Amino acid sequence: MYQERKVIVLTGANTGLGFEALKQLLQHSTSYHLILAVRNIPETEKAIATLTIPSHHNIEISKLDLSSFTSVKSFAQGLLTRDPILPLNILILNAATVKSTLSKTEDNLETTFQTNHLSYFLLIDLLLDRIKWTSEQQKTDSFISRIILVNSSLHKPGIGHNKVGPKLELENLDGSKSYDGMLFYKNSKLAQMLFCYQLNKLLEEEKARISIFAIEPGFIPQTELVRESPLYVKLLMKYFLPLASFTRTPEQGGAVIVYAATSPDLENKSALYINKLCQIDKSSDDSYNEDLQKLWWNISCDLTGLEEKKLS
Question: What is the dihedral of CA 48, 58, 76, 72, to 10 degrees?
């Protein structure tokens, strides 16, 4: 049963970084109950079938579509209503997307921003009390629960092929004025960094023993991030860019995720940005702006229906 194991929720676990992180977690001697939160259950089942799962670990697959707030709420409700109570030790929020053309979700929000930021904002809020409870059950002075946000160096200005962005604009959050898919991806990652630091402030005020880290896995062309991009982009990312010296492999990226989620080096630390070499690094200047942190926290509350959680 999961009471005898640390419970890890891992999104986007059937391909790319998530799958590599899963494989590395399965090599640990610590016993894990791994909940793979994925959009495509059959594809995940096929991927899991290729793995050897040691007997001290357990894996389950659960439906989670990050482009739907209804799906996020259903997933969270499924975790919170179990009997016996399900502890939540580690959340690894890895799945992300980038769109080449403007698209809207069923919630009438731009898809990239909702998938990469707003749905995680909502999911963490729904699960936060259970994460706190899990830490409180442990009779130790160290932080027990961790939240890992898989971010990107593209949240910083001057990074990427066109050196533009991010540019968070409330008046163009829906992309109706102009749309650049990569810019919206960068915006979602900056919003995630602002959220990381603001959430940590609130956790510190409550003296909650929860660590939250944002990680940069590096530029990894072989992920599924560009699955909806034009064919030439897919070919470039799959066959040519992996040969470049500045790129990283999925295995290397997965190792950064696992380091942030499990390393004892990070005990009793929080609100850190961890780079592709597993080093504590500096995020963008904008991400430390406390006014921006509060502003985009409140905007995120409005967009996710959590108006009661807004900051004064």
Answer: -10
Q: What are the backbone dihedrals phi and psi of residue 223, each rounded to the nearest 5 degrees, phi first?
A: -75, 175
Q: Kindly give the interhelix angle for 119-136 and 290-304, rounded to the nearest 10 degrees.
A: 100
| Contact yes or no for 95/65 (Cβ under 8 A) | no
| Phi, psi of 61, rounded to the nearest 5 degrees | -120, 135
Residues 192-207 pLDDT 10s: 999 999 999 999 999 9
How high is the pLDDT of residue 247?
A: 72
- Res 226 pLDDT > 60: no
CA distances to 229, 241, 242 from 246, rounded to whole Å, are: 22, 9, 9
Classify domain 2-307 at the CATH topology level. Answer: Rossmann fold (3.40.50)
Instruction: Spell out the domain ranges in the chain.
Output: 2-307
Residue of 46, 51, 62, 43 whose CA lies nearest to 25: 51
pLDDT digits (tens, 9 = 90+) for 105-132: 999 999 999 999 999 999 999 999 999 9
